Amino acid sequence: MTTAVLTAQMTAGGDDSGKFDPIESWYPVAYVADLDRLTPTPFTLLDRDLVIWWDNQAQAWRAFDDRCPHRLARLSEGRIAEDGLLECPYHGWAFTGAGTCDRIPQQLPDAKAETSRRACVTSLPTSVEQGLLFIYAGTALKAEQTPVPLMPVPMVDGKPTDGWIVLNTFRDLPYDAATLLENVLDPSHLPYTHHNSVGKRSNAGPVELAVVASDKSGFTGTWAEGPRKGTLGRQDTTFIAPCLMWHALTSKQFGETITVVYATPTRKGECRIFARFPFKFASKIPALFISATPEWYSHINNNAILEDDQIFLHHQERYLAQSGGSENFSQSFYLPTKADRFVFEYRQWLNNYQADPFPGQTFKPALDSEKLLDRYHSHTEHCHSCRTAHQNLKIAKQAIVIIALIAWISSTIFALIGGENTLTPAFISIGMVVVGSIGWWGCDRLQLRLEQGSRIPARNRK
What we know:
Layout: H1 2-8, E1 26-31, E2 41-45, E3 48-55, E4 60-65, E5 79-80, E6 86-87, E7 94-95, E8 101-103, E9 123-124, E10 126-129, E11 132-136, H2 140-143, E12 155-156, E13 159-160, E14 165-173, H3 177-184, H4 190-193, E15 209-215, E16 218-223, E17 235-240, E18 244-251, E19 255-267, E20 270-280, H5 285-292, H6 295-307, H7 310-322, H8 329-332, H9 341-352, H10 369-372, H11 384-417, H12 423-449
């Protein structure tokens, strides 16, 4: 399957066999389940501001340049009008799914300014595959010739089949897509960086990685011993240029497991990760536990894992830039073991095929830890499950306060009225206040975990 996938991707990156053009490729931008069909969504791809919206007339997702041709207002601040067209917020110009202008309210009835090519908005090719919305950033005519990079799991209408279960998450990260791919292609950091989250230092040991094949379309590799000192069996790795990688292994304990990562470059020093975790368990019991866990709660844990290395990766890429950049990585990095074989191969691929999506650009000043650990703006507000849970937790906290006040007022009234037995209702009210306080605290803790990560990673907690 790996060889077939790599062969299928030969057209990605443009026609020059010696260069990979990052523009000429499909990139995932959102899970379809997280998009609102009634509201335009802004997204930045390869430093290009776009607006994503649902074209009800064609029953398709559209991606336009996020600029009205009239006075360059952001179309993502507009709305989808009653007739299903995308309407500019500034003067009400409206656009069809093809990007043509349908109406200009300010012109006379017999005028036809909307028919001019200057009234059109650039529309980018889109495709929905495996539950993700992909956008082609390059020449539109090449989009149909360029296969969408997909993970090796059978899916129908965005749902896995043949006994597979897929967990999904995403996040806007404060470092380059190249830094992300370098990180996830490196299995040797897991026991240390992610100790007490998804790894254990006791599982660390020699890691002998080997590259099997490599060309413009990416590379494949293998780890013969595999994770946890060989107890899980061989792990195979695939990188499909420019944005997809996965590790795959089959073990008696867990069945088939794959770790899939898409790295979508947004701006210099920023990217969006789409992490997908397909499982095909030997037993049905783990699948039942996974199905019973709310998606938003899984995302809290996923975010904590990403934050294990979020701060030092943000600074690492700046140190690399100061010491000569990716072109000089072999001098900046000291890579004496085969554990870094995939890191070396990826950085070498990036240089050999001139695949840097932001050549010549420099990083912005480093962010402080609080901003680096922000969860609300980097994930929660964009995720349907987490956004809904966040709203529900706020409502629950308000409801608990109201119920506690009513209980307290009721106990006070009973005490004032008097009677033979005023202690019972008083104890009940006090109990309700205590339970309510615990409930409010629990909701508040969950709300905070949807908003901000912890400064102390799991590996450093005692």
